[in-house]
TrEMBL record:
GO terms for cellular component: cytoplasm. FAD binds at residues 43-44, 48-50, 169, 186, 309-314. It comes from the Eukaryota. PROSITE patterns: PROKAR_LIPOPROTEIN. D-dopa binds at residues 225, 280, 310. Its cofactor is FAD. Pfam families: DAO. The keyword Heme does not apply. Residues 5-325 form the FAD dependent oxidoreductase domain. One of its GO terms (biological process) is D-amino acid catabolic process. The keyword Transferase does not apply. GO terms for molecular function: D-amino-acid oxidase activity; FAD binding. This is FAD dependent oxidoreductase domain-containing protein.
Length: 337
């Protein structure tokens, strides 16, 4: 397939990961990434990147969902162990999740199957942070900092002949005359691009602070979290359903600071680096599927890969590998649509 042309639309963590996987699968293909926003302008840059899929994260079936998560963990862990791991922003980290009311909050049916350590917190550990913590878990997992990984993956993509094209794609159909397959990784942009009413934004806001003494992550009630990264610590957060507001909200900033400092008081001495806002592209069932359209009588082959919500960094490798399988199927004509 030396003359095969593939367009990946979207340059967030899903887009660049998918593009890199496609290069490995179709070594002689011409693959372009088309996007209006790159690097720090993508939603992925706001994510803390801790490998912790929500228990409601959902693919088309339970088996496929678990495979996406397992494949993703293995991908991130294998990359972490290479000489490129630090440059790609991947760390192994441990920490706690506490709750004062709900035992189900501290359990994660996905993580318990993939993490090397996932256990109940001891009574002594429940006393590590101020608060009336009744339930807790300790686990070891991975962290991928997108501000390192996306530039690293983009360089890998370009070093293997991939092209970046800054273009606002108003219609996937318009790409049908230029490419054999279009892979749609547009996140929230798919709401209008695909007229997808199932896709909704969940607004998130975080603060970044300099606190090198924080080596352990902590989660508490009310979506409170403290996650150490490569060069900063992320404090969060909030989940505001169907909010399109991209402006930093001072009330949210104050609330996040108060909750995080109550959980880990040493943060009161941390230097504030800034605040960030992102709109998570949430879909009740993440859409990774094939579609064939016939605009103007010409067959257009599309593979969608979007709707990961707040778990795009976590599950990007798994859904990208799955999307590559679908590209192979749609090209070979094994398309059960």
């Amino acid at each position: 397939m030396s003359d095969l042309k593939i367009a990946v639309v979207g340059a967030g963590v899903i887009g660049v990961t998918t593009a890199c996987q496609l290069q490995k699968r179709f070594r002689n293909a011409k693959i372009d990434i088309l996007a209006h926003e790159f690097f720090e302008d993508t939603t992925s840059y706001v994510a803390a990147g801790l490998f912790r899929p929500g228990t409601s994260f959902c693919g088309p079936s339970e088996d496929i969902t678990r495979k996406w998560i397992q494949d993703s963990y293995e991908f991130w862990d294998a990359l972490r162990k290479t000489s490129e791991g630090i440059e790609a922003g991947i760390l192994e980290v441990s920490g706690y999740i506490f709750s004062s009311e709900f035992p189900e909050i501290v359990r994660n049916r996905f993580l318990e199957q993939v993490c090397p350590v996932y256990r109940s917190a001891t009574r002594a550990e429940l006393g590590l942070c101020p608060g009336n913590w009744k339930f807790g878990s300790f686990f070891t997992t991975l962290l991928t900092q997108s501000s390192y990984y996306i530039p690293w993956a983009t360089r890998e993509f370009q070093s293997h002949g991939g092209q970046l094209i800054r273009q606002k794609v108003a219609s996937l159909e318009h790409l049908g005359t230029q490419y054999d397959v279009v892979v749609n990784c547009t996140g929230l942009g798919a709401k209008t691009l695909c007229n997808d009413h199932h896709l909704v934004p969940i607004r998130g806001q975080v603060s970044k602070v300099k606190a090198p003494w924080i080596k352990t992550f902590f989660y508490g009630d009310l979506d409170t979290y403290i996650i150490p990264g490569v060069d900063s610590v992320t404090l969060g957060g909030c989940r505001q359903y169907e909010s399109w507001d991209l402006k930093v909200n001072d009330f949210d900033s104050m609330n996040i600071q108060q909750r995080c400092e109550a959980l880990v008081p040493s943060l009161k001495g941390a230097e504030l680096l800034g605040h960030q806002v992102g709109l998570r592209p949430h879909r009740a069932v993440v859409r990774v599927e094939k579609e064939v359209k016939n605009p103007n009588g010409k067959k257009l082959k599309i593979v969608h890969n979007y709707g990961h919500g707040g778990y795009g960094v976590t599950t990007a490798p798994g859904t990208s590998l799955y999307a590559c399988d679908l590209v192979q199927e749609i090209l070979s004509g094994n398309s059960k649509l």
